[in-house]
Description:
By secondary structure, the chain is mainly α. It contains 5 helices and no strands. The protein has helices at 2-12, 14-61, 63-68, 72-125, 131-164. The two termini are 31 Å apart. The model has no long low-confidence stretch (mean pLDDT 81).
Amino acid sequence: MLIVATVMSFLINPRLAMIFIVAIIFLGGTLTALISKSVSNFSKCNKKYDTINSDLQENINGVRVVKAYVREDYEISKFKKINFRFKRYIFKKQKKIIIFISPVMQLTVFSCILLLSWFGAKMIVVNELTTGELTSLFAYTINIFNEFTDAFNDVGKYYLVKSLW
């Protein structure tokens, strides 16, 4: 749908459709940088998660020893500390990336709509564009960026799963 909507917008008005091309290039570069940063953070998180799992497995295997030496409180507090550090690390690293994605997407979509409105209104005044064509370009704007968001989410999920292996 991304390609179809872009092609259709070029068929309506190539000059206004260039707004989409610039926006797609901007978003593609920004989101690629965010994904690459996020992938490295996920692999680091997985190493910390492995530490939690190995500690938990050790406690499960040695549950009789823990009970025999009354180390249950110590092991629980140790697990809570490791878990807290892991949670803090994830939120500290990933929060910055996740918080940045939505405003970038919205800024790009609203900039496209604003630019289409501005230049489209000028073209309507001089009879180079009809209101129906401008309305179609608005609809294609939403289609393009919905598909772009879906593609970004799919790529993010792919790299998340890949980092788990």
